[in-house]
Amino acid sequence: MPPKFSRELQQPVIFADFLDFQPRTSPCEADCPAGNPIQKISYLVRDHRFEEAAEYLRARNPFPGVCGRVCPHPCEGKCNRSRYDESVSIRALERAVFDLSEAGKVRRPLPMDKTGKRISIIGSGPAGMTCAYFSSLFGHSVTIFEGLPFLGGMMRSGIPDHRLPKDVLDREIGQILDLGIESKLNTVVGKDVALAEIMAQYDACLIAAGRRNAKSSDISGSRLGSSGMLLGGNYSLNLTRKGILNVDPRTMATSLRGVFAAGDISGPTGVAEAIGSGRRAAIGIHQYLTNHLTAQVCNITMDRQEGVTVSVVDPESKVSPPHVVTYEELSHIDYFEKKPRVATGKMETGEATKKFLEADSGYTREQAAEEASRCFHCGHCFMCGSCVEDCPGYVLAMGADGPTVAYPEECWHCGNCRISCPCGAVAYEFPLSMLV
Questions:
Q1: What's the pLDDT tens digit per position in 411-430?
Q2: pTM
Q3: What's the half-sphere exposure (Cβ side, CA atoms, 13 Å) at 421?
């Protein structure tokens, strides 16, 4: 078989079980708890296309302004560039997309047609708000129940202003509520309203109250028992001894039909992990409400004209995760110039607190573009043309979407294209059919 090229996204993707055009990817994207399209963002920021970058980022994560400030950035620890000079400042680039894009120029996603289904969400932290956002995009009516007098959960009450200014959180929550989501504040489930009442009024329920809240509140109508079960009337949810709900990691479904869980209550999480679990819960709930088998393979994209689209892949297809490109696979690493990591502006915490400012001022547009240019784009073709130039048999040609195999029958699988590729985006399928 001739070489196969792993290509970059050409439209925003909410969820993908399998992308046949992208069989390879980078360690940073594979390790991002929120599932951010890091390489696509870097590609767009490099060219100062901040509004377009925001569209791609918000297709996976409705809180780039929050995550770009408080995420512990495990992705940067996996960055292949750290073996070359310094890792790419991925978190700072995520923040730059939020800070430097003009909100009025960022195209809002078009939701799917109304389904007539109603979803209740208990808790307004990152998991609950993320599930609300995507569930609304899927055409469902959403109501959030929050025991506190404000939305945001620990993002609002647990992070100091010098790290996360509350106007950033307000903007991102406002964009979610703009989809028509209803919120009921000062409403404690189990005290002001029973879970049984909610289950009777809504088609599905997400518990995203946070583990601490779940332990101290009575979301089922009775308290946690030593048996490791959350008991109440006809409702019981399987719990571990530590009070964590047992959920299906793919769909976030609990043992009770129609009830899902995300965030800390399904296991200790940070903001990025909670966002990822909230998105998976929204997809699981959508599949449940539309009578799709949860085992089905599906891709969910955001087309600019047609809006959110769900496509089901052949369930008989053998789906495997993309190959994660290692540093050792980057054969043409000297293609990249060594560059120091671009630093963001910093201020002492005490001084920032006194002046009511952020301790980290982030990037300018020029700084963000410079840092984004350091990305290796591991496993995703960025159309440098090296493979086409170095093909000894002139088998390859550069097209509008990148290199193509113009004369597959004349390819003798010399491997030169793979060696010439600086980002490890070229692969072969075995067994090879060699020319003699």
A1: 988 999 999 999 999 998 76
A2: 0.91
A3: 29
Q: Give the E-state strand segments of 185-316 in sequence order.
A: 204-207, 229-232, 235-238, 259-261, 297-303, 307-313
For residue 78, give the 3-state DSSP assignment. Answer: helix
Say whether pLDDT at 337 is over 50. Answer: yes
Burial 357-380 (b: 16+ CB within 10 A, else e): ebbbebbeeebbbebbbbbbbbbb
Sign of CA dihedral 208, 209, 214, 217: negative
Radius of gyration of the CA atoms of the chain, in A: 23
- Measured in degrees and rounded to the nearest 5, phi and psi for residue 360 equal -120, 120
- Quote the pLDDT of residue 332: 93
d(C-alpha 207, C-alpha 188), whole Å: 12
Give the whole-angstrom CA distance, residue 427 versus residue 409.
Answer: 17
**Cα dist from 87 to 83, 101, 285, 384, whole Å:** 8, 24, 37, 21
- C-alpha span between 142 and 212 (Å, rounded): 24
* Amino acid identity for residue 340 in this structure: P
Handedness of CA 77, 79, 83, 85 (dihedral sign): negative
Q: What is the mean pLDDT of residues 199-206?
A: 95
110 to 116, 130, 137, 295: CA distances (angstroms): 17, 17, 7, 26
Q: Which residue has the tokens 């009775």?
A: 222
- The CATH class of the 118-289 domain is alpha beta
Instruction: At 250, give phi and psi (nearest 5°).
Output: -85, -45
Which tokens hold the place of 339?
């560059």
CA–CA separation, 264 vs 385, rounded Å? 46
Q: pLDDT (tens digit, 9 = 90+) per residue, 155-175?
A: 999 999 999 999 999 999 999
